[in-house]
Write a structure and sequence with these properties.
Cueball_EGF_LRP_Nidogen, 13 strands, single chain, four-stranded antiparallel beta sheet, Wnt receptor activity, mainly beta
């Protein structure tokens, strides 16, 4: 799945398949300017920062179990968000402080460091990644991902895929080759 935020005409948090199909709103109420998003891949939770409401909230992948982690002036102007173990990590865009927030109670907020012009934050650690099983976009014996001549996108599950073409090409009638 691909998760993303939008605050154009109607603010929301959405998800879709990697090929863009099955687009679903998972949060579309009591939300104003969702700007940063982080996933707990193990427990299947979506966290987001709303910079207009000065809040960090969470829902499960279906948009249920919504609750506010933290709200108020102490977390104004946040950008970037990532999750690791019991904490959320984010950047305050006013002073470039890296903040750590306990994701279970929201009361334990610590400033860890200051990085000039920091706008994003990511955790790269093996435990944050789920194991990858064989999938429909694996390279075939001819070196083509999923049998697609250009781009292979996973679809509704790891066994299904959609082929796409680079700009300037169109997908052939076989649904795999680009012309």
């Amino acid at each position: 799945k691909l998760f993303f935020t939008d605050y154009g005409n109607a603010a929301k948090v959405e998800r879709c398949d990697m090929d863009g199909m099955n687009r679903t709103w998972i949060v579309d109420s009591k939300i104003e300017q969702p700007t940063a998003l982080a996933l707990d891949l193990v427990n299947k939770y979506v966290y987001w920062v709303d910079i207009y409401l000065d809040s960090v909230e969470v829902v499960d992948y279906q948009g249920r179990k919504r609750h506010t982690i933290i709200k108020g002036r102490q977390i104004r102007h946040l950008c970037g968000l990532t999750v690791f173990e019991s904490y959320l990590y984010t950047v305050n865009s006013d002073n470039f402080n890296i903040l750590r927030v306990n994701r279970y109670n929201g009361t334990d907020v610590q400033s860890l460091a200051r990085l000039d012009n920091a706008k994003e934050i990511h955790v790269y650690q093996k435990r944050t990644q789920t194991a990858v099983r064989s999938h429909a976009c694996e390279v075939d014996p001819y070196g083509m991902p999923g049998g697609c001549s250009h781009i292979c996108l996973l679809s509704s599950n790891y066994k299904a895929r959609t082929c796409r073409c680079r700009t300037g090409f169109i997908l052939g009638s076989d649904g795999r080759s680009c012309k």
